[in-house]
């Protein structure tokens, strides 16, 4: 839900620059709530607000193509890869053998 939180507007993750005071109020409320039925109900309310307000197409792609190099170790493909590169490791000797640099 943070992707549509008003204060996260561009250059932050709110690329739509969506601003809705009621949505932002609900976001602040759920951000400190424990997991509960009430929180789930608010999530659904916020989701409906986004679908009603934002002119965007939300889609799901069950297949993803990711380039993979055999010299890259500890890499796990995922949909939210921001910051994951710091956990990867490069086998420099194998890379040199494969690409000559």
- Domain module count: 2
Measure the end-to-end span: 44 Å
Q: What portion of residues is helical?
A: 25-40%
Which residues form runs of ≥5 with pLDDT under 50?
none
Rough shape?
elongated
Main sheet attributes: strand count, strand direction, barrel closure = 2 strands, antiparallel
Strand tally, please? 2
The SSE order reads HHEEH
Structural class determined from secondary elements? mainly alpha
Query: What proportion strand?
Result: under 5%
Rg, alpha carbons = 20 Å
Q: Order of strands side by side in the largest beta sheet? A: 1-2
Determine the mean pLDDT: 84
Put simply, the count of helices is: 3
List keywords for this structure.
single chain; 101 residues; mainly alpha; 2 domains; two-stranded antiparallel sheet; 3 helices; 2 strands; 4% strand; elongated
Structure, described:
- The protein folds into 2 domains: 2-53, no CATH class; 61-101, no CATH class.
- The protein has helices at residues 21-30, 37-53, 92-99; strands spanning 72-73, 89-90.
- It is built from 3 helices and 2 strands, in the order ααββα.
- The longest helix has 17 residues, at 37-53.
- It has 101 residues and is mostly helical.
- It is elongated, with a radius of gyration of 20 Å.
- Strands 1-2 form a two-stranded antiparallel ribbon.
């Amino acid at each position: 839900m943070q992707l549509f939180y008003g204060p996260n507007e561009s250059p932050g993750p709110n690329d739509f620059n969506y601003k809705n005071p009621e949505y932002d109020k609900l976001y602040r409320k759920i951000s400190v709530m424990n997991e509960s039925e009430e929180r789930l109900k608010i999530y659904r309310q916020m989701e409906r607000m986004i679908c009603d307000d934002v002119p965007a197409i939300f889609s799901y792609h069950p297949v993803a193509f990711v380039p993979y190099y055999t010299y890259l170790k500890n890499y796990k493909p995922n949909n939210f890869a921001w910051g994951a590169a710091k956990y990867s490791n490069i086998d420099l000797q194998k890379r040199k053998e494969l690409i000559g640099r």
